[in-house]
Amino acid sequence: NARISYRELAKRVGLSTTAVMKRVNSLMDAGTIREFVVMPSHAMIGAERFWALIHTDGSEDEENLADSLGSLPEVHAVIRLVSPRGRSYLLYGNYIGSIRLSEIAAYFRRLDGVEEVELHNVIANWMRVSNWGRGEKMELTKQHLLALKSLKQNPRIQVKELSDETGLSLRKARRLLREIEDSGAFYFMVRTDPMVEGPTFRVKMQLADNEITPQQLLSSMQDICGEYTYGLGFSVTEPVAFSLTVGVDVLQMQRMFLAIERLPFVAAATPLMVLTYRAYPHLSQHRLDEILEGLTD
Questions:
Q1: For the chain, which domains are there?
Q2: Could you give the maximum distance between any two Cα atoms of the chain, in Å?
Q3: Residues pairing with 56 in the sheet
Q4: From CA 178, how far away is CA 185, in angstroms rounded?
């Protein structure tokens, strides 16, 4: 939650407010915290999640391909994986409508060097970011839009600053912030760089049991990976899931992978070792820009 106060955060972690402020600033300086962002929920913009695995013949320029993939507003992360042949990439993204998803897949396949594209419509749980839900919808007034314009520039803006920027009274600014935060229609996120937190690896799982639920699978991942569990992607169309752990060493990776491979509902498991991670703006950030375009000062 990008809007949690330093005081509240200090209570949760058992440190002084000053110490927490220094820790956060240090994380920002180190690049662990990339940015604070506010963006509409998936429900607000009618979006779904997709994850894609792309395999190439290795002839491409990695940076150029990543930027070509990330040039789509629907793609917000391009992750280079260790691959026994050619190169492999894992993509995270969002889309609106099945027709658009087909267009995205066709775009991927047209890129030079791409040999195979595997696309999954997923529900995902990022342990440090959000839950399984898609968020809520809310009706936006012009005053909400004024507040969102300021929040876009500074997601951690305080009531007094918002009042000064918008000309609204302190009482109204406080009410608008509370309505937006409590609505569930907007995500206040801290975008982090998993690579800075330590080695990361993912496991692609082919599930043998179609009856396994996302929550049951997540519980199994937490039992195996504990505090290193970062997230889980669960395909809604195929018996496939992806787990993500962060900050583990090679021996821990080995133990975790073997434990995952032995789960009774996992038919096959493939380790996906991360080499590089490139982040791009979320589709929801693009949509917020569009929502605010018509707002006049």
A1: 1-30 (no CATH), 44-131+193-279 (3.30.70.920)
A2: 61
A3: 87, 114
A4: 12
Nearest to 90 by CA among 227, 200, 222: 200
Compute, in degrees rounded to 10, the torsion defined by CA atoms 78, 82, 88, 93. Answer: -30
What's the token pair of residue 191?
């975008």
User: 35: which strand partners?
Assistant: 191
Q: What is the pTM of this model?
A: 0.87
How does pLDDT run across 176-233, given as a tens digit for each residue? 999 999 999 998 988 877 777 667 788 999 999 777 888 888 889 989 988 888 888 8
Q: Which positions ≥6 away from 286 have C-beta within 8 Å?
A: 73
Contact 206, 267 (CB under 8 A): yes
Question: Quick check: 229 and 247 in contact, CB under 8 A?
Answer: no
For residues 52 and 119, the answer to whether their CB atoms sit within 8 Å is yes
Q: Are 35 and 196 in contact (CB under 8 A)?
A: no
CA gap 52, 220 in Å, rounded = 23
Q: Is the separation of the CB atoms in 291 and 185 below 8 Å?
A: no
Strand partners, 268: 206
Q: Which of 217, 222, 281 is nearest to 256 (CA)?
A: 222
Residues 194 and 245 sit within 8 Å (Cβ to Cβ): no
